[in-house]
Design brief:
Layout lengths: L18 E2 L17 H6 L2 E5 L1 H9 L5 E6 L1 H6 L1 H5 L5 E4 L2 H8 L7 E6 L6 H6 L4 E6 L4 H13 L4 E4 L9 H6 L9 E3 L9 H4 L4 E4 L5 E2 H7 L6 E6 L7 H6 L2 E4 L11 H12 L1
Parallel strand pairs: 1-4, 3-4, 6-7, 6-11, 7-8, 9-11, 9-12, 10-12
Antiparallel strand pairs: 2-5, 3-5
Length: 280
């Protein structure tokens, strides 16, 4: 982002320096132009956060680095206290009518933030941070499911998420929004040698509970044998194919969730939530 010093005193919060911009061609807004190209942003090491609640979570709770914020006047007022905590952040205030033509899509509640992607993490990095309550994903591509899994993981105290092959990007705009900002807070890493790299969990005393309809043990039985608060990794796969045979082979336990015989299956987010509630 370009430097804009000195910046005018905000009329929304005296502690928030804002820049009022009325020209969509203003070069200071270049990074917010045509944001539908998510791949282009990713290649530049950036990602977008959308919506007041999620942007506020980025500003207040996330270890990730925001670069700039694009807001309407109403959003600037609503986010005043959170923006005041980041006095060096570029905050651009634009008319509501300019938001969609500038960014290329309909903005949720007139608020966007640009942030830097964190350095890639491995499963070893996640473990080195001390995480021992984990959620492991294989082949989960849908951004709604990715976001829902991060939100669920945070609700049940998961300390880290491991992404296996074929998983979607947790920092994709929709995934972040669906996660209610949990994707900005819960650490995640990539298991690049699947499924062998997941076996390292056992070396750290973290048993893997694989959720599968053909599980050898019910969730109730597994939970009864698992000490409350002990390390655990719950592993889930994509809806439809489920976990691969390789993933199931590295699991310590294959666990099934009892459902009505007439039902086909559970959504992966729901299944993970039930298991995490009982185990983690």
């Amino acid at each position: 982002m370009s430097e804009c010093r000195p910046r005018p005193r905000s009329r929304y919060d005296s502690r928030v320096p804002t820049v009022l911009v009325h020209d969509p061609a203003d070069p200071r807004l270049a990074d917010f132009r045509n944001l539908v190209d998510g791949d282009g942003l990713s290649q530049r090491g950036l990602f977008i956060v959308e919506g007041r609640l999620v942007v506020e979570r980025l500003l207040r709770e996330s270890p990730l680095e925001p670069c700039a914020v694009l807001v309407t006047e109403a959003a600037a007022r609503a986010l005043g206290p959170a923006l005041a905590q980041r006095p060096d952040l570029d905050v651009y205030v634009v008319p509501v009518a300019m938001m969609e033509p500038l960014t290329g899509f309909n903005i949720h509640r007139g608020c966007l933030a640009m942030a830097r992607r964190p350095a890639p993490r491995s499963i070893d990095d996640v473990l080195a941070s001390g995480a021992r309550r984990l959620l492991v994903l294989e082949g989960v591509t849908n951004p709604d499911n990715i976001g829902g899994l991060f939100r669920t993981a945070r609700a049940f105290g998961v300390q880290g998420i491991v992404l296996g092959p074929g998983c979607g990007d947790p920092l994709y705009r929709k995934a972040v929004r669906v996660s209610c900002g949990a994707a900005l807070v819960v650490p995640f890493g990539v298991a690049d040698r699947w499924p062998d790299s997941v076996a390292v969990l056992g070396q750290h005393g973290v048993p893997i509970f694989a959720l599968t309809p053909g599980g050898d043990r019910s969730l109730e039985e597994a939970a009864a044998l698992h000490r409350h608060g002990a390390p655990v990794a719950v592993m889930v796969g994509a809806e439809g194919p489920g976990l691969s045979s390789g993933a199931l082979q590295v699991a310590d336990q294959r666990v099934r969730i009892a459902i009505d015989p007439g039902a086909d299956s559970l959504n992966v987010v729901v299944a993970a939530g039930i298991a995490l509630h009982r185990l983690a």
